[in-house]
Design goal:
Radius of gyration: 51 Å
Number of strands: 17
Strand content: 15-25%
């Protein structure tokens, strides 16, 4: 508490100098505590924002992965549907043969050819069941060679098959391997009627001529030099000519006028030098210049001296079929590419967990070759000891339930490193519900695991800091309560001092001779001191803590009904400065409507 003499130009009663009394309080610790609390609050808010950002980023990445997986699955499903549509509508008996000779897929033309339903064929019959016993050894050799070196086995050949009722049927066989698999696609063109036709022709020239002319397939005879001797109407129509006679008169050399390249004619002749029949698919140039693909069966007819008298053959227009086959091949390659190079691992597991199939992506992640894994390794072989039992339990449940979602494992790569993975799978079962294999997708789970570990560590840190902040907050609350009580006591003392020690002196001063200006200022000072001790200023300062001292002065004058000009004169300020403060007061008091009366609002605080 300090007492100092007050300076005055006038004498006071008793000749004594009046004293100014005040007080001071040390609030350094309170300010330090407030600053510390503010810093802790800012730091906690930053940590919460950082964690929230990490969670949102990981959620976005997971959504992208899920969307990508759905997109790949939709493409695979669409491609598989196209594949089945083409397979069913090739127009010839077509089937897919597994490595063990089992027929895994057959179309409706196979049903017509062998008189078996697909349910009786697929997964139950071997192609050996329909072959003559004397042909099986040779055909098995072709089957083996085709999987070792596809070029070493013939792609096309003729053979006899036995249908359900024991009837023999002649067929022309075309075999191709499905890229990237051990499966083969077999196309069977029944030529029983052609063979019967051949036998009938040898018995009767008249019958041969009739069949030749009216056959639904193309038939022809050519000289050794390449000119047409004769052809039937079906063949001329295949080539776009109006009649067989037009073909004979227009095509003088099949090597240059009919085949797309002369080498095709050379191939036919060189083949017939070695064996009686030539079978193949030869591109032909139609009359309008377009290309017709003909499936040809040509044989040589010899003179008595053994030289070739002429060539005769039959042809089937397979142009559309070839287009379909090319589409089928492209779709198969597309499906294979999608499977092998998907952004996630794909695999199939047998009933005991052995790898049946695995794509290139998963192989690259694990570091193994396909030969090392397929048929030799089990998925459990890749797991650490502590996860093997868990996998066996989940795999057993999966085979019963038929699906698995987001199973987490840690696989051990070939080099010994570990990779966290996430697995989703569906089961493939037979018609009796017996498990056959799984179709599983494997995702790299490293980023997610690292993110989870980081978040857990962050959570631990935040919990510790939150506990510390809570303790500090409790201490500060106690301190703030004490400060608030002290502040109220201070306000009461100030109010009491003004009323008891200041206002009485002003009353004495008013009794002295004063001019009008001095009396005006004295009245203002008295009013202001009275208001300081009144509810108006107390309410204004407590409710709107962001009003400045100048704004409180101006607000008090506005409440008293002073105009802007009068306030400017009283405070010795410019009118535009007063207008600026008036506008700020309106904003801080929430008066957004220009029509709202500021004076009325301020009087409500009195």
């Amino acid at each position: 508490m300090l007492d100092t003499p007050a300076r005055s130009n006038r004498s006071h009663r008793g000749g004594e100098n009046p004293l100014l009394r005040g007080f001071a309080e040390d609030v350094t610790e309170r300010k330090t505590a407030e600053e510390t609390l503010k810093q802790y609050g800012s730091h906690l808010e930053a940590l919460v924002k950082e964690r929230t950002s990490q969670l949102e980023e990981r959620n976005r990445q997971l959504n992208l992965e899920i969307a990508e997986r759905k997109r790949v699955e939709e493409i695979l499903c669409e491609s598989e549907n196209k594949y089945h549509t083409i397979f069913e509508n090739t127009g010839t008996a077509t089937l897919i043969v597994e490595d063990n000779t089992t027929i895994s897929l057959a179309n409706k033309e196979v049903e017509r050819l062998f008189h078996y339903t697909r349910d009786e064929l697929e997964g139950k019959k071997s192609w050996k069941d329909f072959k003559l016993q004397e042909d099986i050894e040779q055909l098995m050799e072709y089957h083996r060679l085709r999987r070792v070196n596809p070029e070493a086995a013939p792609k096309n050949y003729e053979m006899k098959v036995i249908d359900r009722f024991g009837s023999l049927r002649d067929v022309y066989v075309t075999v191709s391997m499905i890229p990237g698999t051990s499966k083969s696609v077999v196309s069977l063109l029944e030529i029983t009627h052609l063979k019967n036709m051949e036998r009938a022709l040898t018995k009767s020239e008249a019958l041969y001529r009739n069949l030749f002319e009216n056959a639904s397939i193309g038939m022809f005879q050519t000289s050794p030099e390449g000119g047409f001797l004769r052809c039937n109407k079906a063949f001329s129509e295949m080539l776009g000519y109006e009649s067989p006679e037009e073909v004979v008169s227009s095509v003088f050399n099949t090597a240059t006028n009919l085949h797309t390249t002369p080498e095709n004619r050379d191939l036919i002749l060189s083949t017939l030098e070695e064996r009686e029949w030539f079978y193949g698919e030869i591109p032909h140039i139609r009359k309008d210049g377009s290309i017709m693909i003909g499936k040809m069966a040509i044989r040589r007819m010899l003179n008595s001296d053994g030289t070739i008298a002429y060539l005769e053959g039959i042809a089937e227009d397979i142009t559309e079929k070839k287009k379909v086959e090319e589409q089928l091949k492209r779709y198969a390659e597309e499906i294979t590419d999608l499977y092998e190079n998907a952004p996630c691992g794909y695999h199939s597991l047998a009933e005991d967990g052995t790898y049946l199939r695995v794509n290139r992506t998963e192989l690259s992640w694990l570091g193994y070759s396909r030969e090392e894994m397929v048929g030799k390794m089990k998925f459990s072989d890749l797991l650490p000891a502590e996860e093997k039992a868990l996998f066996m339990t989940k795999f057993s449940d999966f085979k019963k339930r038929g699906w698995a979602r987001d199973h987490e494992y840690t696989v051990i790569r070939k080099d010994g490193s570990r990779l966290p993975v996430l697995i989703n799978a569906t089961a493939v079962s037979d018609e009796n519900g017996r498990y056959l294999m799984s179709r599983g997708s494997l995702f790299d789970n490293s980023d997610r695991k690292h993110a989870e570990e980081s978040l857990l560590e962050r959570e631990k840190e935040l919990r510790v800091k939150a506990q510390n902040l809570q303790e500090v907050n409790t201490t500060l609350n106690v301190l703030l309560d004490t400060i608030e009580k002290d502040t109220e006591e201070l306000k009461e003392r100030v109010t009491t001092n003004i009323r008891e020690q200041v206002l009485p002196y002003l009353e004495q001063l008013k009794k002295t001779p004063l001019d009008e200006v001095q009396r005006g200022f004295l009245q203002i000072a008295e009013n202001r001191l009275d208001e300081i001790a009144s509810p108006f200023v107390k309410k204004l300062t407590s409710r709107y803590l962001n009003l400045t001292k100048r704004e409180i002065q101006i607000a008090t004058l506005i409440k008293d009904g002073k105009t802007t000009k009068e306030i400017a004169e009283i405070l010795d300020a410019k009118k535009r400065a007063i207008d600026f403060h008036r506008e700020n007061i309106r904003k801080k008091l929430g008066l957004k409507n220009k029509k709202s009366n500021l004076q009325i609002l301020l009087r409500s605080f009195s």
